[in-house]
Write a structure and sequence with these properties.
CATH architecture of the largest domain: 2-Layer Sandwich
Number of strands: 17
CATH superfamily of the largest domain: PmbA/TldD superfamily
Helix content: 10-25%
Number of helices: 9
Structural class: alpha+beta
Strand content: 25-35%
Number of domains: 2
CATH topology of the largest domain: PmbA/TldD fold
Radius of gyration: 24 Å
Distance between the termini: 53 Å
Order of helices and strands: HEEEHHEEEHEHHEEEHEHEEEHEEE
Shape: globular
Protein backbone atom coordinates (compact mmCIF):
# COMPACT_ATOMS: atom_id res chain seq x y z
CA UNK A 1 0.00 0.00 0.00
CA UNK A 2 1.30 3.46 -0.82
CA UNK A 3 2.05 5.50 2.26
CA UNK A 4 -0.56 8.18 2.88
CA UNK A 5 0.42 10.67 5.53
CA UNK A 6 -2.06 13.07 6.98
CA UNK A 7 -1.62 14.77 3.58
CA UNK A 8 -4.90 16.40 4.27
CA UNK A 9 -3.11 18.48 6.92
CA UNK A 10 -3.85 22.18 6.71
CA UNK A 11 -0.14 22.93 7.04
CA UNK A 12 0.75 26.33 8.53
CA UNK A 13 -2.47 27.04 10.38
CA UNK A 14 -1.56 30.66 11.15
CA UNK A 15 -0.88 31.40 7.48
CA UNK A 16 -4.17 29.75 6.50
CA UNK A 17 -6.05 31.75 9.13
CA UNK A 18 -4.46 34.94 7.82
CA UNK A 19 -5.66 34.04 4.33
CA UNK A 20 -9.20 33.33 5.55
CA UNK A 21 -9.26 36.58 7.53
CA UNK A 22 -8.19 38.53 4.44
CA UNK A 23 -10.85 36.74 2.38
CA UNK A 24 -13.53 37.56 4.93
CA UNK A 25 -12.63 41.26 4.80
CA UNK A 26 -12.85 41.32 1.03
CA UNK A 27 -16.27 39.70 1.19
CA UNK A 28 -17.50 42.19 3.80
CA UNK A 29 -16.37 45.04 1.56
CA UNK A 30 -18.34 43.55 -1.34
CA UNK A 31 -21.42 43.24 0.87
CA UNK A 32 -21.13 46.90 1.88
CA UNK A 33 -20.63 47.96 -1.74
CA UNK A 34 -23.80 46.04 -2.64
CA UNK A 35 -25.82 48.14 -0.21
CA UNK A 36 -26.00 45.84 2.84
CA UNK A 37 -26.37 47.71 6.12
CA UNK A 38 -24.75 44.82 8.03
CA UNK A 39 -22.96 41.63 7.03
CA UNK A 40 -21.16 38.64 8.48
CA UNK A 41 -18.88 36.03 6.95
CA UNK A 42 -17.76 32.58 8.11
CA UNK A 43 -14.82 30.87 6.38
CA UNK A 44 -13.61 27.41 7.32
CA UNK A 45 -11.26 24.65 6.22
CA UNK A 46 -11.24 21.07 7.50
CA UNK A 47 -9.10 18.04 6.81
CA UNK A 48 -9.23 14.49 8.08
CA UNK A 49 -8.00 10.92 7.87
CA UNK A 50 -10.25 8.01 8.84
CA UNK A 51 -9.53 4.27 8.62
CA UNK A 52 -11.74 1.31 9.44
CA UNK A 53 -10.75 -2.34 9.84
CA UNK A 54 -12.88 -5.40 10.56
CA UNK A 55 -11.74 -8.92 11.42
CA UNK A 56 -8.16 -7.86 10.76
CA UNK A 57 -8.87 -6.59 7.25
CA UNK A 58 -8.90 -3.00 6.02
CA UNK A 59 -12.38 -1.86 5.04
CA UNK A 60 -11.93 1.84 4.31
CA UNK A 61 -9.22 4.48 4.18
CA UNK A 62 -10.64 7.95 3.72
CA UNK A 63 -8.78 11.22 3.36
CA UNK A 64 -10.90 14.38 3.32
CA UNK A 65 -10.40 18.08 2.80
CA UNK A 66 -13.27 20.55 2.76
CA UNK A 67 -13.79 24.27 2.87
CA UNK A 68 -16.82 26.49 3.14
CA UNK A 69 -17.69 30.14 2.93
CA UNK A 70 -21.00 31.49 4.22
CA UNK A 71 -22.15 35.07 3.67
CA UNK A 72 -25.09 36.68 5.45
CA UNK A 73 -26.28 40.19 4.70
CA UNK A 74 -28.90 42.44 6.28
CA UNK A 75 -30.78 45.18 4.52
CA UNK A 76 -32.22 46.82 7.58
CA UNK A 77 -33.86 43.82 9.20
CA UNK A 78 -34.26 41.73 6.09
CA UNK A 79 -31.78 38.85 5.93
CA UNK A 80 -30.25 36.78 3.14
CA UNK A 81 -27.61 34.05 3.20
CA UNK A 82 -25.62 32.16 0.59
CA UNK A 83 -22.60 29.86 0.64
CA UNK A 84 -19.90 28.46 -1.62
CA UNK A 85 -16.73 26.38 -1.58
CA UNK A 86 -15.34 28.02 -4.72
CA UNK A 87 -12.70 30.71 -4.17
CA UNK A 88 -12.74 32.08 -7.73
CA UNK A 89 -13.56 35.77 -7.82
CA UNK A 90 -16.64 35.33 -10.01
CA UNK A 91 -18.00 32.70 -7.61
CA UNK A 92 -17.42 34.99 -4.61
CA UNK A 93 -19.17 37.83 -6.43
CA UNK A 94 -22.09 35.53 -7.24
CA UNK A 95 -22.36 34.39 -3.62
CA UNK A 96 -22.60 37.96 -2.33
CA UNK A 97 -25.08 38.84 -5.07
CA UNK A 98 -27.25 35.85 -4.22
CA UNK A 99 -27.30 36.70 -0.50
CA UNK A 100 -28.28 40.29 -1.32
CA UNK A 101 -31.00 39.17 -3.72
CA UNK A 102 -32.50 36.90 -1.09
CA UNK A 103 -32.44 39.68 1.53
CA UNK A 104 -34.24 42.11 -0.76
CA UNK A 105 -37.16 39.70 -1.10
CA UNK A 106 -37.47 38.42 2.46
CA UNK A 107 -39.87 39.70 5.09
CA UNK A 108 -38.80 42.29 7.63
CA UNK A 109 -37.93 40.55 10.92
CA UNK A 110 -37.61 42.76 13.99
CA UNK A 111 -35.23 40.27 15.65
CA UNK A 112 -32.84 40.02 12.69
CA UNK A 113 -29.39 41.57 12.64
CA UNK A 114 -25.91 41.15 14.04
CA UNK A 115 -25.41 40.84 17.76
CA UNK A 116 -24.87 44.24 19.41
CA UNK A 117 -21.43 45.73 18.72
CA UNK A 118 -20.60 46.33 22.39
CA UNK A 119 -20.91 42.59 23.09
CA UNK A 120 -18.13 41.57 20.68
CA UNK A 121 -15.23 39.66 22.25
CA UNK A 122 -11.93 41.50 22.65
CA UNK A 123 -9.81 38.99 24.58
CA UNK A 124 -9.25 36.45 21.79
CA UNK A 125 -7.30 33.66 23.45
CA UNK A 126 -6.59 30.06 22.51
CA UNK A 127 -7.26 27.14 24.83
CA UNK A 128 -4.68 24.48 23.92
CA UNK A 129 -6.92 23.04 21.23
CA UNK A 130 -4.40 22.69 18.36
CA UNK A 131 -2.53 19.36 18.35
CA UNK A 132 -2.05 18.04 14.79
CA UNK A 133 -1.30 14.33 14.54
CA UNK A 134 1.04 13.58 11.64
CA UNK A 135 -0.21 10.02 11.37
CA UNK A 136 0.23 7.92 8.25
CA UNK A 137 -2.57 5.71 7.01
CA UNK A 138 -0.37 2.63 7.55
CA UNK A 139 0.12 3.55 11.20
CA UNK A 140 -3.59 4.27 11.65
CA UNK A 141 -4.42 0.86 10.19
CA UNK A 142 -1.94 -0.78 12.55
CA UNK A 143 -3.52 0.97 15.55
CA UNK A 144 -7.05 -0.04 14.56
CA UNK A 145 -5.95 -3.62 13.89
CA UNK A 146 -4.17 -3.84 17.25
CA UNK A 147 -7.22 -2.44 19.03
CA UNK A 148 -9.57 -5.00 17.49
CA UNK A 149 -7.10 -7.85 18.05
CA UNK A 150 -6.72 -6.97 21.75
CA UNK A 151 -10.47 -7.24 22.17
CA UNK A 152 -10.90 -10.43 20.16
CA UNK A 153 -8.09 -12.12 22.07
CA UNK A 154 -9.29 -10.96 25.47
CA UNK A 155 -12.11 -13.48 25.80
CA UNK A 156 -12.94 -16.53 23.68
CA UNK A 157 -16.62 -15.58 23.81
CA UNK A 158 -15.86 -12.59 21.55
CA UNK A 159 -16.59 -14.33 18.28
CA UNK A 160 -17.17 -11.44 15.90
CA UNK A 161 -16.50 -7.77 15.40
CA UNK A 162 -18.16 -4.65 14.07
CA UNK A 163 -14.69 -3.25 13.50
CA UNK A 164 -12.25 -0.70 14.85
CA UNK A 165 -11.53 2.79 13.59
CA UNK A 166 -9.01 5.58 13.89
CA UNK A 167 -9.84 9.17 13.02
CA UNK A 168 -7.82 12.37 12.97
CA UNK A 169 -9.05 15.80 11.95
CA UNK A 170 -8.06 19.47 11.88
CA UNK A 171 -10.26 22.50 11.42
CA UNK A 172 -9.62 26.23 11.19
CA UNK A 173 -12.16 28.99 10.89
CA UNK A 174 -12.65 32.73 10.79
CA UNK A 175 -15.82 34.61 11.69
CA UNK A 176 -15.95 38.32 10.80
CA UNK A 177 -18.70 40.91 10.73
CA UNK A 178 -19.26 44.54 9.85
CA UNK A 179 -18.81 45.65 13.47
CA UNK A 180 -15.10 45.15 12.78
CA UNK A 181 -14.92 41.88 14.68
CA UNK A 182 -12.60 39.18 13.35
CA UNK A 183 -12.34 35.95 15.34
CA UNK A 184 -10.03 33.07 14.52
CA UNK A 185 -10.25 29.52 15.80
CA UNK A 186 -8.32 26.31 15.17
CA UNK A 187 -8.79 22.88 16.69
CA UNK A 188 -7.91 19.23 16.25
CA UNK A 189 -9.74 16.07 17.26
CA UNK A 190 -8.57 12.46 17.23
CA UNK A 191 -10.29 9.19 18.09
CA UNK A 192 -9.77 5.45 18.42
CA UNK A 193 -12.64 3.02 18.95
CA UNK A 194 -13.77 -0.57 18.67
CA UNK A 195 -17.11 -2.45 18.67
CA UNK A 196 -17.19 -6.20 19.33
CA UNK A 197 -19.76 -8.99 19.31
CA UNK A 198 -19.82 -11.66 21.99
CA UNK A 199 -21.71 -14.95 21.83
CA UNK A 200 -23.30 -16.56 18.80
CA UNK A 201 -26.66 -17.15 17.14
CA UNK A 202 -29.59 -15.56 18.92
CA UNK A 203 -27.47 -14.99 22.03
CA UNK A 204 -25.14 -12.40 20.50
CA UNK A 205 -24.48 -9.14 22.31
CA UNK A 206 -22.69 -6.08 20.93
CA UNK A 207 -20.86 -3.35 22.78
CA UNK A 208 -17.81 -1.20 22.36
CA UNK A 209 -15.56 1.53 23.67
CA UNK A 210 -13.79 4.55 22.26
CA UNK A 211 -11.40 7.30 23.25
CA UNK A 212 -11.41 10.83 21.89
CA UNK A 213 -9.27 13.90 22.49
CA UNK A 214 -7.93 17.11 21.04
CA UNK A 215 -4.44 15.64 21.29
CA UNK A 216 -3.40 12.12 20.34
CA UNK A 217 -1.59 12.01 23.68
CA UNK A 218 -4.98 12.10 25.40
CA UNK A 219 -6.16 8.83 23.78
CA UNK A 220 -6.21 5.57 25.68
CA UNK A 221 -4.00 2.86 24.25
CA UNK A 222 -5.31 0.57 21.50
CA UNK A 223 -5.00 -2.46 23.80
CA UNK A 224 -6.92 -0.75 26.63
CA UNK A 225 -9.78 0.24 24.32
CA UNK A 226 -9.98 -3.22 22.76
CA UNK A 227 -10.07 -4.98 26.12
CA UNK A 228 -12.67 -2.55 27.47
CA UNK A 229 -14.87 -3.17 24.42
CA UNK A 230 -14.56 -6.94 24.95
CA UNK A 231 -15.36 -6.66 28.66
CA UNK A 232 -18.48 -4.65 27.93
CA UNK A 233 -19.69 -7.03 25.20
CA UNK A 234 -19.11 -10.16 27.32
CA UNK A 235 -20.75 -8.61 30.38
CA UNK A 236 -24.02 -8.33 28.43
CA UNK A 237 -24.29 -12.05 27.62
CA UNK A 238 -27.29 -13.99 28.95
CA UNK A 239 -29.48 -10.98 29.79
CA UNK A 240 -32.62 -11.40 31.84
CA UNK A 241 -35.88 -9.57 32.16
CA UNK A 242 -37.01 -7.79 35.31
CA UNK A 243 -40.55 -7.28 36.57
CA UNK A 244 -42.30 -4.09 35.61
CA UNK A 245 -42.24 -1.63 38.49
CA UNK A 246 -40.96 1.64 39.91
CA UNK A 247 -37.24 1.52 40.73
CA UNK A 248 -34.24 3.77 41.27
CA UNK A 249 -32.38 4.21 37.98
CA UNK A 250 -28.66 4.90 37.84
CA UNK A 251 -27.50 6.35 34.53
CA UNK A 252 -23.86 5.44 33.85
CA UNK A 253 -21.83 8.54 33.00
CA UNK A 254 -21.88 7.94 29.24
CA UNK A 255 -25.69 7.75 29.36
CA UNK A 256 -26.17 10.45 32.00
CA UNK A 257 -25.07 13.28 29.74
CA UNK A 258 -28.19 12.69 27.63
CA UNK A 259 -30.26 13.98 30.57
CA UNK A 260 -28.26 17.20 30.55
CA UNK A 261 -28.73 17.35 26.79
CA UNK A 262 -32.51 17.27 27.26
CA UNK A 263 -32.21 20.15 29.73
CA UNK A 264 -30.14 22.21 27.26
CA UNK A 265 -32.63 21.56 24.48
CA UNK A 266 -35.50 22.72 26.67
CA UNK A 267 -33.83 25.97 27.81
CA UNK A 268 -32.45 26.91 24.38
CA UNK A 269 -33.83 29.98 22.71
CA UNK A 270 -35.25 28.31 19.61
CA UNK A 271 -37.46 25.98 21.64
CA UNK A 272 -38.52 28.78 23.99
CA UNK A 273 -39.61 31.41 21.50
CA UNK A 274 -41.46 28.75 19.51
CA UNK A 275 -43.11 27.71 22.80
CA UNK A 276 -42.03 24.13 22.16
CA UNK A 277 -40.42 23.48 25.55
CA UNK A 278 -41.62 21.96 28.80
CA UNK A 279 -39.46 24.55 30.62
CA UNK A 280 -41.18 27.73 29.43
CA UNK A 281 -40.86 30.54 32.00
CA UNK A 282 -38.58 28.41 34.16
CA UNK A 283 -35.64 30.78 34.65
CA UNK A 284 -35.31 31.49 38.37
CA UNK A 285 -37.29 28.42 39.40
CA UNK A 286 -36.19 25.34 41.33
CA UNK A 287 -35.80 22.41 38.93
CA UNK A 288 -33.26 20.26 40.79
CA UNK A 289 -32.35 19.44 44.40
CA UNK A 290 -30.71 22.31 46.30
CA UNK A 291 -27.19 20.83 46.05
CA UNK A 292 -27.32 20.44 42.24
CA UNK A 293 -25.25 22.74 40.02
CA UNK A 294 -24.12 23.05 36.39
CA UNK A 295 -21.46 25.56 35.31
CA UNK A 296 -20.54 26.67 31.81
CA UNK A 297 -16.75 26.85 31.41
CA UNK A 298 -15.80 28.25 27.99
CA UNK A 299 -12.15 28.84 28.92
CA UNK A 300 -11.28 25.26 29.89
CA UNK A 301 -7.87 24.16 28.54
CA UNK A 302 -8.37 21.41 25.94
CA UNK A 303 -12.13 21.64 26.37
CA UNK A 304 -14.11 20.27 23.45
CA UNK A 305 -16.12 23.51 23.16
CA UNK A 306 -13.72 26.09 24.57
CA UNK A 307 -13.93 29.49 22.87
CA UNK A 308 -13.56 33.17 23.66
CA UNK A 309 -16.54 34.03 21.43
CA UNK A 310 -19.72 32.43 20.16
CA UNK A 311 -20.92 32.00 16.58
CA UNK A 312 -21.86 35.70 16.42
CA UNK A 313 -18.61 37.05 17.89
CA UNK A 314 -20.17 37.70 21.31
CA UNK A 315 -17.74 37.30 24.21
CA UNK A 316 -18.26 34.13 26.23
CA UNK A 317 -18.25 34.10 30.03
CA UNK A 318 -17.94 31.54 32.78
CA UNK A 319 -21.34 31.40 34.42
CA UNK A 320 -23.69 29.05 36.25
CA UNK A 321 -26.54 27.47 34.33
CA UNK A 322 -27.99 25.84 37.45
CA UNK A 323 -27.07 26.94 40.97
CA UNK A 324 -28.54 25.57 44.21
CA UNK A 325 -30.94 23.62 42.00
CA UNK A 326 -32.33 26.82 40.44
CA UNK A 327 -32.18 27.44 36.68
CA UNK A 328 -30.22 30.69 36.44
CA UNK A 329 -30.76 31.56 32.78
CA UNK A 330 -31.60 30.32 29.34
CA UNK A 331 -29.19 29.45 26.49
CA UNK A 332 -29.57 32.23 23.92
CA UNK A 333 -28.08 33.76 20.81
CA UNK A 334 -29.00 37.31 19.81
CA UNK A 335 -31.92 36.33 17.57
CA UNK A 336 -33.71 34.16 20.12
CA UNK A 337 -32.92 36.68 22.86
CA UNK A 338 -34.62 39.44 20.90
CA UNK A 339 -37.62 37.23 20.21
CA UNK A 340 -37.93 36.69 23.96
CA UNK A 341 -37.21 40.28 24.96
CA UNK A 342 -33.99 39.18 26.67
CA UNK A 343 -30.23 39.56 26.19
CA UNK A 344 -27.96 37.05 24.44
CA UNK A 345 -26.06 34.75 26.78
CA UNK A 346 -23.20 34.26 24.31
CA UNK A 347 -24.50 30.87 23.26
CA UNK A 348 -25.13 31.30 19.54
CA UNK A 349 -23.98 27.94 18.22
CA UNK A 350 -24.48 26.11 21.53
CA UNK A 351 -23.00 25.76 25.00
CA UNK A 352 -19.29 25.91 25.76
CA UNK A 353 -18.32 23.04 28.12
CA UNK A 354 -20.72 22.16 30.93
CA UNK A 355 -19.55 20.77 34.26
CA UNK A 356 -22.12 19.00 36.45
CA UNK A 357 -21.24 19.19 40.14
CA UNK A 358 -20.73 15.83 41.88
CA UNK A 359 -22.06 15.17 45.38
CA UNK A 360 -21.06 11.51 45.64
CA UNK A 361 -18.14 9.17 45.07
CA UNK A 362 -16.95 7.04 42.19
CA UNK A 363 -18.99 4.59 40.12
CA UNK A 364 -18.69 1.75 42.64
CA UNK A 365 -19.87 4.07 45.40
CA UNK A 366 -22.86 5.11 43.30
CA UNK A 367 -23.86 1.47 42.72
CA UNK A 368 -23.50 0.70 46.43
CA UNK A 369 -25.50 3.78 47.32
CA UNK A 370 -28.38 2.81 45.03
CA UNK A 371 -28.70 -0.56 46.79
CA UNK A 372 -31.37 -2.04 44.55
CA UNK A 373 -32.40 -0.84 41.11
CA UNK A 374 -31.48 -0.53 37.45
CA UNK A 375 -28.12 0.55 36.09
CA UNK A 376 -28.55 1.96 32.55
CA UNK A 377 -25.56 1.75 30.21
CA UNK A 378 -27.33 2.13 26.87
CA UNK A 379 -30.36 4.08 25.65
CA UNK A 380 -32.32 3.47 22.46
CA UNK A 381 -34.95 5.43 20.60
CA UNK A 382 -35.96 9.08 20.68
CA UNK A 383 -38.97 8.91 22.97
CA UNK A 384 -38.79 12.38 24.49
CA UNK A 385 -41.59 14.92 24.07
CA UNK A 386 -39.89 18.31 24.30
CA UNK A 387 -43.21 20.11 24.79
CA UNK A 388 -44.50 18.07 27.73
CA UNK A 389 -41.25 16.57 29.05
CA UNK A 390 -42.66 13.05 28.84
CA UNK A 391 -39.81 10.57 28.61
CA UNK A 392 -39.88 6.96 27.40
CA UNK A 393 -36.80 5.21 26.02
CA UNK A 394 -35.61 1.71 25.38
CA UNK A 395 -32.71 0.76 27.64
CA UNK A 396 -30.19 -1.93 28.48
CA UNK A 397 -27.95 -2.33 31.47
CA UNK A 398 -27.68 -4.31 34.69
CA UNK A 399 -29.80 -5.18 37.69
CA UNK A 400 -28.34 -4.21 41.06
CA UNK A 401 -29.12 -5.89 44.41
CA UNK A 402 -27.52 -5.12 47.76
CA UNK A 403 -25.25 -2.58 46.10
CA UNK A 404 -23.77 -5.15 43.70
CA UNK A 405 -24.28 -5.69 39.96
CA UNK A 406 -26.10 -9.02 39.59
CA UNK A 407 -26.87 -9.68 35.90
CA UNK A 408 -27.45 -7.91 32.56
CA UNK A 409 -30.91 -6.86 31.41
CA UNK A 410 -32.23 -5.69 28.07
CA UNK A 411 -35.51 -5.30 26.20
CA UNK A 412 -36.83 -2.85 28.78
CA UNK A 413 -38.28 0.65 28.67
CA UNK A 414 -37.74 3.38 31.24
CA UNK A 415 -40.31 6.16 31.53
CA UNK A 416 -41.07 9.30 33.46
CA UNK A 417 -41.36 13.06 33.03
CA UNK A 418 -38.15 15.04 32.75
CA UNK A 419 -39.26 17.76 35.13
CA UNK A 420 -40.05 15.15 37.78
CA UNK A 421 -36.86 13.24 36.96
CA UNK A 422 -34.73 16.36 37.45
CA UNK A 423 -36.31 16.96 40.84
CA UNK A 424 -35.79 13.30 41.79
CA UNK A 425 -32.02 13.24 41.17
CA UNK A 426 -30.42 11.93 44.35
CA UNK A 427 -26.73 11.82 43.46
CA UNK A 428 -24.13 12.70 40.83
CA UNK A 429 -20.95 10.65 40.84
CA UNK A 430 -17.34 11.79 40.54
CA UNK A 431 -16.80 9.30 37.68
CA UNK A 432 -16.82 11.98 34.97
CA UNK A 433 -16.82 10.77 31.37
CA UNK A 434 -14.31 13.17 29.72
CA UNK A 435 -15.30 12.33 26.13
CA UNK A 436 -17.77 15.19 25.68
CA UNK A 437 -18.25 18.91 26.23
CA UNK A 438 -20.93 17.88 28.76
CA UNK A 439 -18.87 16.63 31.69
CA UNK A 440 -20.87 14.62 34.18
CA UNK A 441 -20.52 11.54 36.30
CA UNK A 442 -23.21 8.91 36.71
CA UNK A 443 -26.62 10.25 37.79
CA UNK A 444 -29.03 8.49 40.16
CA UNK A 445 -32.75 9.22 39.68
CA UNK A 446 -34.67 8.13 42.76
CA UNK A 447 -37.64 6.53 40.99
CA UNK A 448 -38.71 5.79 37.44
CA UNK A 449 -41.15 3.40 35.83
CA UNK A 450 -39.37 0.41 34.32
CA UNK A 451 -41.37 -1.75 31.88
CA UNK A 452 -39.92 -5.24 31.83
CA UNK A 453 -41.75 -8.56 32.05
Amino acid sequence: MATLTHATSLGDSHARLDALAELSQRLLERCHASGASQAEVSCSEESGLNVNVRMGEVETVESTRDRGIAVTVYFGQRKGSASTADLREDSLDATVAQACAIARYTEHDSAAGLADAELMASDLREFDSWHPWAIEADHAIDLATACEAAGREFDRRVENSDGASVGSGESIGVYANSHGFVGRERSTQHSLGCALIAGSGDAMQRDGWYSIGLSADDLQSAATIGRKAAERAVSRLDPRQIPTGDYPVLYAAESARSLIGHLIGAVSGGALYRRASFLLDSAGTQLFPEWFAIDELPFMARGFRSSAFDAEGVATHESPLVKDGVLQRYVLGSYSARKLGLRTTGNAGGVHNLQVQANSGDFEAMVRGMGRGLLVTELMGQGVNTITGDYSRGAAGFWVENGQIQYPVDGITIAGNLKQMFAAIEAVGSDVDPRSHVRTGSILVGKMTVAGE
